[in-house]
């Protein structure tokens, strides 16, 4: 679907068995694949899709949290939230730049987002009705993102791996900040505590869904693992997240909304881990397919920003052209 | 002779300018015309809110009344906010927002420059940092005003409309209250009258490249320094103060 849009980067490599074998051998040797290296077109497409989706998630992710910037309860929290939302925009920018090295422009990716063709993380299709949602997002959503992204720092594609190193540092700062916000609420008045518990109740299951379908139902997984774009399966990452997060909730006296959650000493090869209840996959697919509570609003907000800004972008281009024309004219006049 | 109250009140009015303008800029976050601006808007808002925090905190120390930066930011009535009217104007389109920021930054830059030789060491310290931050706002917004003024027919028209709408509010930046005059006399804060030529120079240089004209102002709009605000201000406060009003006396 991107082939038309590829700007001169369409590799004319012939995907002979020898070529594919050598490519896999490079990956197995843990060599980084760089943008100008020959690569199978399916590898390129997979990465464009994945990095594009990731970039879109960062951008759409600015909206639910941005919803609270003007209402943050203290100046310290307001500044922290502004900085966080700005960081997310910055992540979007590096990721678009990483995807551009594969031959697709930011503008094309934006159009695919706005037309609904490209996806972004479903988690951002849930609303942020209360201030505690800002804590829950930082703690759980950034927390789940870190689980997914730390292994991506070793992704076989160099630009993506390098972008992730920088992004992960900031995400872990966001995660700590979110947890600290939740802790403050949990230690606060009864209504603050209730607000925190309610946010946890609403965000827990969607954050488990962030790891995607069960391995048995996941279509893209095997090839991505082979190409070392992915290093762990969806279920492995989800389990790590649960095991890391449940004790954090306990420490601040909040309860996970899962009656089936319990410690299982035999899990994880005897290291122990948590058993947890089953995810509502109907809800997962409904949100993926556009039926979540905020899907329509999120896209509408991005589309409005893009449409309302068209005259600004046109003016910037027109001005740049005028400057070039003037520079050209004055050069001619000087000759 | 400037009393601590004169000094504190003058700083609070300046902090109010920064907080309210920061609030307005932050409303663009995630809704800007391009991703670069989705980053610049919160970036500038952060500078302004950071400066507001410094000024409020210092005013609290001067007052010695036990109020905190958050008490000042969130728990006053509309008449107690002393920001100039320009900063509370609704964002309008991108041309309005960028021009308003330029007007303000072109005022604050010479302000912070002059404040570096204040008789008060705390103000000198804030001024050194803030001057560098605000210089970026002038550069960034000035470039946009030029791009839009000298871009397409539509952008030039929008830029002219923004000038017409906002220029009447610029006069109030230079209003000197009696408390401020006392601070000037004590060498604590800059004499705003001396900043006017630097402000005009910045604006006219940028306007020249943007093919914009500085309008004659028949009726300057002011009142904010006296706590008389526009109709939009109450709505802004209802958002800004929402949490503190809905859940009084809690720690966040
Ligand atoms: Fe991010
Ligand atoms: Fe992310
Ligand atoms: Fe983050």
Summarize the structure in short:
Chain A is mainly α. Helices cover 63% and strands 2% of the residues of chain A.
Structural class, from helix and strand content of chain B?
mainly alpha
- Coarse structural class of chain A: mainly alpha
Radius of gyration of chain A: 22 Å
Q: Which oligomeric state applies?
A: heterodimer
Distance between the termini of chain A: 49 Å
Question: What do you see in this structure?
Answer:
The complex is a heterodimer of chains A (335) and B (252). By secondary structure, chain A is an all-alpha fold. Chain A has 13 helices and two strands, in the order ααααααααααββααα. Chain A has helices spanning 17-28, 41-60, 62-66, 75-100, 106-114, 132-149, 158-186, 190-209, 221-226, 234-251, 281-288, 295-308, 310-334, and strands spanning 262-264, 273-275. In chain A, strands 1-2 form a two-stranded antiparallel ribbon. In chain A, β1 (262-264) and β2 (273-275) form a beta hairpin. In chain A, α2 packs antiparallel against α4, α6 (132-149) packs antiparallel against α7 and α6 (132-149) runs antiparallel to α10 (234-251). The relative contact order of chain A is 0.10. Chain B has 252 residues and is mainly alpha-helical. Chain B has a single domain (4-212, 222-246), classed as Ferritin, core subunit, four-helix bundle (Ferritin), CATH 1.20.1260. Chain B has eleven helices and no strands. Chain B is globular and about 55 Å long. In chain B, 52% of the residues are buried. The model of chain B has no long low-confidence stretch (mean pLDDT 97). One fe (ii) ion (FE2) is lined by residues 88, 142, 171, 174 of chain A.
């Amino acid at each position: 679907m991107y082939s038309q849009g590829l700007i001169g980067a369409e590799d004319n490599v012939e995907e002979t068995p020898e070529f594919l074998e050598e490519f896999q051998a490079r990956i197995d040797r843990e060599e980084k694949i760089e943008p100008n290296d020959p690569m199978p077109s399916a590898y390129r497409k997979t990465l464009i899709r994945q990095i594009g989706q990731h970039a879109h998630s960062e951008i759409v992710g600015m909206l639910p949290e941005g919803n609270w910037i003007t209402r943050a309860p203290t100046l310290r929290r307001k500044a922290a939230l502004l900085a966080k939302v700005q960081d997310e925009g910055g992540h979007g920018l590096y990721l678009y730049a990483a995807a551009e090295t594969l031959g697709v422009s930011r503008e094309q990716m934006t159009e695919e987002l706005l037309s609904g063709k490209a996806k972004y993380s479903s988690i951002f299709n849930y609303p942020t009705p209360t201030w505690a949602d800002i804590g829950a997002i930082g703690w759980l959503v950034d927390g789940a993102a870190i689980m997914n992204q730390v292994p991506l720092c070793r992704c076989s594609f160099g630009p993506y791996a390098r972008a992730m190193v920088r992004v992960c540092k900031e995400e872990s700062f966001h995660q700590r900040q979110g947890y600290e916000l939740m802790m403050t609420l949990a230690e606060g008045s009864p209504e603050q505590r209730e607000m925190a518990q309610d946010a946890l109740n609403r965000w827990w299951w969607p954050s488990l869904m962030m790891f995607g379908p069960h391995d048995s139902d996941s279509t893209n997984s095997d090839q991505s693992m082979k190409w070392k774009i992915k290093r762990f399966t969806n279920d492995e990452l989800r389990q790590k997240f649960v095991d890391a997060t449940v004790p954090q909730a306990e420490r601040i006296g909040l309860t996970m909304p899962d009656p089936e959650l319990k410690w299982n000493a035999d899990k994880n090869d005897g290291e122990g881990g948590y058993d947890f209840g089953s995810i509502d996959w109907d809800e997962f697919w409904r949100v993926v397919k556009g039926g979540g509570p905020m899907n329509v609003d999120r896209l509408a907000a991005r589309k409005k920003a893009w449409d309302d800004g068209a005259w600004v972008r046109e003016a910037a281009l027109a001005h740049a052209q005028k400057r070039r024309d003037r520079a050209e004219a004055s050069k001619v006049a000087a000759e | 002779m400037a009393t601590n109250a004169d000094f504190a009140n003058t700083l609070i009015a300046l902090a109010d300018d920064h907080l309210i303008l920061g609030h307005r800029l932050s409303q663009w976050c995630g809704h800007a015309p391009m991703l670069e601006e989705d980053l610049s808007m919160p970036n500038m808002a952060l500078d302004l809110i950071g400066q507001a925090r410094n000024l409020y905190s210092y005013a609290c120390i001067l007052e010695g009344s036990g109020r905190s930066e958050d008490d000042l930011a969130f728990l006053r009535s509309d008449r107690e906010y002393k920001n100039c009217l320009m900063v509370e104007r609704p964002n309008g389109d991108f041309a309005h927002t960028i021009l308003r920021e330029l007007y303000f930054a072109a005022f604050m830059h010479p302000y912070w420059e002059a404040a570096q030789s204040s008789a008060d060491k705390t103000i000198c310290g804030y001024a050194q940092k803030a001057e560098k931050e605000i210089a970026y706002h002038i550069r960034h917004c000035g470039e946009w005003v030029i791009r839009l003024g000298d871009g397409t027919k539509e952008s030039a028209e929008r830029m002219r409309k923004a000038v017409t709408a906002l220029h009447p509010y610029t006069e109030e930046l230079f209003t000197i209250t009696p408390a401020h005059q006392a601070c000037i006399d004590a060498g604590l804060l800059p004499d705003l009258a001396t900043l006017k030529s630097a402000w005009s120079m910045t604006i006219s240089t940028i306007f020249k490249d943007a093919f914009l004209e500085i309008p004659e102002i028949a009726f300057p709009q002011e009142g904010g320094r006296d706590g008389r605000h526009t109709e939009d201000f109450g709505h802004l406060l209802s958002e800004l103060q929402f949490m503190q009003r809905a859940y009084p006396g809690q720690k966040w």
